[in-house]
Amino acid sequence: MTHHIDNHQLGKTQSRAVIDVAAHCQKIGVDKAQERKLLTLLGRFASRHELQMNIKRHPENLR
């Protein structure tokens, strides 16, 4: 379900920054398979919090 939001009704604390999922994945170095999963799950645009909670980062080998 989608609906239009009037920007004049929202305050600065209520609005969320929405970013492009594919561009964000390329910027932080997410592999293509996970990028496709995120695009399927979230769509083309999502908030930063939604992306951070759904990206699985594999621990780097520290040795």
In terms of quaternary structure, the protein is: single chain
User: How many angstroms does the end-to-end distance come to?
Assistant: 48 Å
Query: Which sequence of strands runs across the widest sheet?
Result: 1-2
Beta strand count: 2
Largest sheet: 2 strands, antiparallel
Strand content: 5-15%
- Class computed from helices, strands and strand pairing: mainly alpha
- Choose one word for the global shape: elongated
With helices defined by DSSP (H or I, 4 residues minimum), what is the helix count?
Answer: 3
Helix content: 40-55%
How would you state the average pLDDT, rounded? 84
Structure description:
- This protein has three helices and two strands.
- With 63 residues, it is mainly alpha-helical.
- The protein has a two-stranded antiparallel sheet.
- It starts with 17 loop residues before the first strand and ends in a 9-residue tail after the last helix.
- The model has no long low-confidence stretch (mean pLDDT 84).
Helix and strand layout, with pairings?
Blueprint: E1 18-20, H1 21-28, H2 32-42, E2 45-47, H3 48-54
Antiparallel strand pairs: 1-2
Task: Please give a quick description of this structure.
By secondary structure, the chain is mainly α. The chain has helices at 21-28, 32-42, 48-54, and strands at residues 18-20, 45-47.
